[in-house]
């Protein structure tokens, strides 16, 4: 029986549209150009950093982030706030929690995202980031951390994310139940792949999760 629902962050809870738009401005290309190349990288199973390299050869992410912070120390840069939440997040998480499930947020995020997530005051029992843990998805150690903070057996956990490679497949390998969210470029692309069939749930939004949890009980 599933007792805990764990949520990825980017394109699961948080829309990254404004973040990518700010990156496009920083890189000196249109938002359409950057998002189009990001979609291409998603289709080719390449990382978002490959899109940056495509529009700016020789791109160094760490160096660019440091320079951006220096240039705009008080700006949003590549972080998020309540305006970036998908509209179904608060109500869906609250309903899942009210139904008796433990709700945890844990995704591949820099440690500074922890404060941004906590500031959102979402209906969750705990919040965690990969950098805070020192291990990132899809590494097995990330999902071991998820089980440890939940205090559950892996089979009692449903991991919800928008990607097969980072979310569904490694969580399933760790023994967890999985939900693939058709949201963001990776979510739509990955939901059409044959491998998506291994997910316990394929959902169009977060409101679909509670009925699915009841079916899986």
UniProtKB/TrEMBL annotation:
It holds the Pfam family Hydrolase. Keywords: Hydrolase. One of its GO terms (molecular function) is hydrolase activity. Gene3D superfamilies: HAD superfamily/HAD-like. This is HAD family hydrolase. It comes from Nonomuraea diastatica.
């Amino acid at each position: 029986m599933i007792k805990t629902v764990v949520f990825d962050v980017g394109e699961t809870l948080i829309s990254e549209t404004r973040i990518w738009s700010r990156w496009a401005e920083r890189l000196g290309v249109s938002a359409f150009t950057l998002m189009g190349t990001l979609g291409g990288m998603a289709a080719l199973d390449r990382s978002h950093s490959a899109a940056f390299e495509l529009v700016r050869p020789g791109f160094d992410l760490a160096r660019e982030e440091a320079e951006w912070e220096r240039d705009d120390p008080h700006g949003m840069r590549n972080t998020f706030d309540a305006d970036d939440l998908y509209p179904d997040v608060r109500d869906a998480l609250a309903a899942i929690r009210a139904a008796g499930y433990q709700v945890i947020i844990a995704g591949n995020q820099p440690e500074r995202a922890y404060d941004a997530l906590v500031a959102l005051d979402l209906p969750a029992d705990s919040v965690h980031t990969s950098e805070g843990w020192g291990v990132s998805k899809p590494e097995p150690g990330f999902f071991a951390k998820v089980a440890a903070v939940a205090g559950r057996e892996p089979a009692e956990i449903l991991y919800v994310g928008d990607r097969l490679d980072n979310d569904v497949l490694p969580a399933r390998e760790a023994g967890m139940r999985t939900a693939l969210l058709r949201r963001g470029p990776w979510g739509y692309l990955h939901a059409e792949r044959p491998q998506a069939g291994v997910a316990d749930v394929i959902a169009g939004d977060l409101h679909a999760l509670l009925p699915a949890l009841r079916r899986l009980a």
